[in-house]
Specification:
The protein is an alpha/beta fold. Helix content is 31%, strand content 32%. The chain is built from 8 helices and 15 strands. The strands form 4 sheets. It has a 5-stranded parallel sheet with strand order 2-1-3-4-5. Helix 3 links the parallel strand 3 (52-55) and strand 4. The longest helix is centred in the C-terminal third of the chain and has 15 residues, at 222-236.
């Protein structure tokens, strides 16, 4: 059984989060806290008593949720932290504490489910793996591999397609990215494509289906693609 803590000032929001957890096919015991002090009182001396921490970036004063998450992360690397908030203000800072997710009210229940199941199903290194890319515009950006649906190469650029629908363009080479991505999670299925096996909904003849997008599988990769996909699926069961 997993223990989840909800730290949120709004009773309405706490109830919404609790209700969202009921649909996950996991045994989760939920505790609610209206402020961080009561939550901290329930932590044991060694590390967090909870496996999952769901909290707002601002509980009573601006940014105090980030401060609480930093304290929890300093005590334990095993806690899954997910921010659920009304503002995008602290999006970048959230990942300094290795947050698994950053959701905005009113969030889609499936987004929360994906964060929790993905965290507990994948090895730590895969969850925290990231890339530092130089975007076409010249700025550098860290991209967490867990958010990548697939990568394609086109017009001398690579395009990263993310779970939230965003795309990131870089002049990096696909071969270079292939070496940086976790091999057990990503697969080169075509000269111009790398897919995340986690997000594959279906494997059809000559293609993968990833969030309704059809990703081609080259003939030379078809056997390896089939083996990798089925190995990954059996591993998840």
């Amino acid at each position: 059984m997993l223990r989840a803590a909800i730290v949120e000032k709004s009773k309405e929001h706490r109830e919404y989060i609790r209700a969202s957890l009921t649909g996950i096919n996991m045994d989760i015991q939920v505790s609610e806290y209206a402020d961080e002090y009561d939550y901290l009182d329930d932590l044991n001396e060694e590390a967090s008593s909870f496996d999952i921490l769901l909290l707002n970036t601002t509980i009573h004063r601006e940014g105090d949720g980030l401060e609480l998450a930093a304290k929890v992360r300093a005590r334990s690397r095993k806690v899954m932290i997910c921010f659920i908030t009304d503002s995008q203000r602290y999006y970048a800072e959230a990942f300094s504490v290795f947050a698994t997710g950053y959701l905005l009210y009113p969030f889609d229940v499936s987004e929360l489910h994906n964060c929790i199941t993905f965290f507990w199903q994948k090895p730590t290194m895969e969850r925290r793996a990231s890339l530092m890319l130089k975007e076409v515009g010249g700025s550098f950006r860290r991209v967490y591999c867990r958010n990548i649906l697939y990568v394609e190469s086109a017009n001398r650029k690579v395009i990263l397609h993310l779970e939230n629908g965003e795309t990131i363009e870089s002049y990096a080479k696909l071969d270079e990215l292939e070496q940086q991505l976790p091999g057990r999670l990503f697969f080169r299925c075509h000269q111009s494509y790398i897919i995340s096996l986690y997000f594959v909904e279906k494997m059809d003849t000559g293609k993968f289906i990833v969030q309704s997008a059809e990703i081609p599988v080259s003939r030379k990769y078809q056997r390896a693609a089939r083996e990798m996909y089925y190995d990954y699926m059996f591993e998840k069961m």
